[in-house]
Write a structure and sequence with these properties.
The complex is a heterodimer of chains A (249) and B (466). Chain A is of the alpha/beta class. Chain A is built from 8 helices and 10 strands. Helix content of chain A is 33%, strand content 25%. Chain A is globular and about 60 Å long. Chain B folds into 3 domains: 65-201 and 316-465, ABC transporter involved in vitamin B12 uptake, BtuC, CATH 1.10.3470; 203-260; 267-303, no CATH class. Helix content of chain B is 69%, strand content 2%. Chain B has 18 helices and 2 strands. Chain B has helices at 2-8, 17-25, 29-52, 66-91, 99-122, 127-153, 159-178, 188-191, 203-231, 239-260, 267-277, 315-333, 335-345, 347-352, 357-383, 394-404, 416-435, 440-465, and strands at residues 292-296, 299-303. In chain B, strands 1-2 form a two-stranded antiparallel sheet. In chain B, helix 5 packs across helix 15, helix 6 runs antiparallel to helix 7 and helix 12 (315-333) crosses helix 13 (335-345). The two termini of chain B are 19 Å apart. The A-B interface holds A 52, 54, 73-75, 78, 84, 86, 88, 90-95, 99-100, 103-106, 108, 112-114, 117-118, 120-121, 141 and B 228-229, 231-232, 234, 329, 332-335, 338, 341-346, 348-356, 412-413.
Chain lengths: 249, 466
């Protein structure tokens, strides 16, 4: 098999005296979706924020395409093609959809000024692919619905040709139809060889969308399993009891 | 103002002509409301001052006269320049309480350089002196602003505390630099920036030329915007709306120019200029209502038909307009400006999007400091002196002007032109009450009340729009 896209080896993060993430190792291959599961406070969001540069790790190494890298802030992460779609839908509420899409990577005219028209045009193109009903390009993000905001956030990730995508509960704020849309999108991204870390509470979503699942409890990794080889109950056991099913152990 | 608001209320189902006009032209209704309030205040003061003492104002008072409006613009300059920077600070969810003390400190520093250091050394009137005064204020201001920014962004001290400390400390430094005395007079060339001498007045010809240039730019901007949108097949405004926008812009520019071009030089200055340059003064009949000068026998007197010079735009007003245009450009057309608004809307999202929010914070405070330096130059040049009390409580007027101009203290929302209008509105109220001979204490009460009222009206408006 090809080299892993991402390897996070022996990652530890502490907040004061509490070990939020304790010696956790996970990996991700191109075109693969790895689910991260666990209770609230299990440490999955913290682990993934180390990869996206929002938190600093206290120990461990991160390898991308087999090479050790140093990620200290979100700008570093973006430099390695890591894009994150956050649970809290990280949009600036007061600026419009097109500006949010390009936030931090604006298109400029030849005079060095913002090229709003070109950005709006690109936004219309990418959103047309993703959510054809979307029309509200000039309105502040706060007037958008949860699903519309989510499509803006996802569009932002694909617009910049992410190689590694982190999705933190991408469907939490969405209705059934919009959830379906996100599922289709994930399949499409997989075909393009993008590796996806998917954080979710919902076991069914994970079983349906993921190739492998890593389960965390109390900051530690319970285990990583292939979803084809386990049942919902096996995973539930891992989440609640912190016990890896014997047949795959 | 009230009618405008009710007409724009979302509850109105049928679209009236005003509503469809506003929608097609995409004009900011809140700014229109402010312009309406401003005109209402102007008319009220003109009528009231007319009741006290009839004059040749538009409505019989002394407010809507070229002299008062011209002076109003000059008086607004210093606060307005700082308010354009305060918009960005407040939009970014920060505050700068130190601008008043900083203005005193910078003005005194610039004056010390001119009067105590370079004056005796190079000789009074040397061209290096005024340049050194200007550069001192601007560079010192930028550095002090950046210092405020570094304390806020990198040491994580709330900007309220950092600049409250600055408010107290900088006025102390100003006192020490000035040794507690008034430093005067400033360099003659430096004084031109204050707008009090004939060399700082553009005169009618250049004022009209500038106005035509501005009108041309407005039309060009509209055409260019339309061309860009057509290129990408975006919805376009109807042609009549574009024409209406151009017409509104042109009327505003030409109207302002007509007003400043009908304000004559003071009597004494015309006389001095004519005598100094050997201009012959025509004979005429004395009339103390006139602004021109005549020879009645061998006496120079006021008259209606005679030698007259008009001021046109004065330098501080031009500086303010240029700063307003530049800051609008920064806020809306540059990455830096976009980041400021994004940080104000959601600081976390901005950081996660890869924006170096700390650096942006430092730059915004440095820019604020630069503008305080500019205001310090205007204020001290206008007064022809610098004291450690020059900028006292200016921070409150600057913040009030910014907030009246529609900038939300919650961050993320605010416009530069709104702040300029806010500054003009504040100054209008103050100078209007001076015309009515109301005591200073009463002026403070009214200005404070207007601030609170303006924010209340704005809140009500925002809720109704939602």
């Amino acid at each position: 098999m090809t080299a892993p896209l991402v390897e996070m080896r022996n990652i530890s993060v502490s907040f004061g005296g509490i070990k939020a993430v304790d010696n956790v190792t996970v990996d991700l291959y191109p075109g693969e979706v790895v689910g991260l599961l666990g209770h609230n406070g299990a440490g999955k969001s913290t682990l993934i924020k180390v990869l996206s540069g929002a938190y600093k790790r206290d120990g461990g190494t991160i390898l991308i395409n087999g090479e050790e890298v140093d990620i200290n802030n979100p700008r570093d992460a973006k430099g390695y093609g890591i894009e994150t779609i956050y649970q809290a839908l990280a949009l600036a509420d007061n600026v419009d959809a097109a500006s949010n899409l390009f936030l931090g990577r604006e298109l400029m005219t030849k005079w060095g000024t913002l090229d709003d028209v070109a950005m709006e045009a690109a936004a219309r193109k990418v959103m047309g692919r993703l959510n054809p009903n979307f029309r509200r390009f000039k309105e502040p993000a706060k007037s958008l619905s949860g699903g519309q905001r989510q499509s803006v956030a996802i569009a932002r990730a694909i617009l910049f040709n992410a190689r590694i995508l982190i999705m933190d509960e991408p469907t939490a704020a969405l209705g059934p139809q919009e959830t379906r849309m996100v599922a289709d999108l994930i399949q499409e991204l997989k075909r393009q060889g993008i590796g996806i870390f998917l954080i979710d509470h919902d076991i069914h979503t994970v079983m349906e969308l993921c190739d492998r699942a890593s389960v965390m409890k109390n900051g530690q990794l319970v285990g990583t399993v292939k979803v084809d080889e386990v049942t919902d109950d096996d995973i539930l056991g891992m989440i609640i009891l912190g016990k890896k099913p014997e047949k795959v152990a | 103002m009230a009618t405008e608001k009710s007409l724009n209320a979302p509850g109105v189902q049928k679209e009236g002509p005003i509503r469809s006009f506003l929608r097609a032209t995409e004009l900011d209704t809140r700014i229109l409301g402010m312009v309406g309030a401003l005109l209402l205040i102007w008319c009220t003061f003109d009528i009231l001052s007319g009741l006290v003492r009839p004059n040749d104002g538009l409505l019989g008072g002394s407010f809507l006269t070229p002299r008062n409006l011209w002076t109003l613009l000059v008086q607004t300059s210093s606060i307005a320049v700082m308010a354009t920077g305060m918009v960005l600070v407040i939009v970014m969810r920060q505050i700068d309480l130190s601008v008043g003390s900083m203005l005193s400190m910078l003005a005194v520093a610039g004056a010390v350089v001119q009067v105590f250091q370079l004056g005796p050394w190079l000789g009074v009137g040397h061209p290096v002196i005024w340049i050194a005064g200007v550069v001192t204020c601007l560079i010192f201001g930028t550095l002090v602003g950046a210092f405020n920014g570094v304390l806020t962004a990198y040491l994580q001290i709330p900007s309220f505390i950092v600049t409250l400390g600055g408010l107290i400390a900088y006025s102390g430094i100003a006192f020490l630099l000035a040794s507690g005395v008034t430093i005067a007079p400033m360099d003659r060339t430096f004084d031109i920036i204050g707008g009090g001498v004939p060399q700082s007045w553009l005169g009618p010809f250049w004022s009209w030329l500038l106005a035509l240039l501005a009108c041309g730019l407005i039309v060009l901007a509209l055409i260019n915007g339309r061309k860009q949108r057509r290129k990408f097949n975006f919805p376009l405004r109807p042609i009549w709306a574009e024409v209406a926008l151009a017409a509104i812009g042109a009327v505003a520019v030409l109207g302002t120019t007509a007003v400043v071009n009908s304000y004559a030089w003071p009597f004494m200055l015309i006389k001095q200029y004519a005598q100094a340059h050997g201009v012959t003064i025509p004979p005429g009949v004395q009339n103390n209502d006139g602004d021109a000068i005549c020879m009645a026998g061998d006496q120079v007197v006021r008259c209606t038909e005679g030698l007259i010079y008009y001021t046109g735009y004065s330098l501080p007003v031009l500086i303010t307009l240029a700063v307003g245009a530049a800051m609008t450009f920064v806020a809306t057309r540059t990455k830096f400006g976009r980041y400021i608004y994004a940080i104000g809307g959601n600081p976390e999202a901005a950081e996660l999007a890869g924006i170096n929010t700390r650096m942006v914070t430092v730059k915004v405070f440095a820019l604020m400091g630069f503008l305080v330096g500019l205001s310090a130059i205007i204020s001290s040049a206008r007064l022809d002196a610098a004291t450690n009390a020059l900028g006292q409580s200016n921070e409150l007027y600057v913040i009030a002007a910014t907030v009246i101009g529609g900038t939300s203290l919650a961050g993320g929302v605010g416009t530069v032109y709104g702040a300029l209008l806010g500054a003009l509105l504040m100054q209008s109220i103050q100078s209007g009450m001076q015309l009515l001979n109301l005591p200073a204490a009463f002026q403070n009460i009214v200005v404070g009340t207007v601030l609170v009222l303006a924010v209340f009206v704005d809140q009500v408006y925002r809720r109704r729009v939602k």
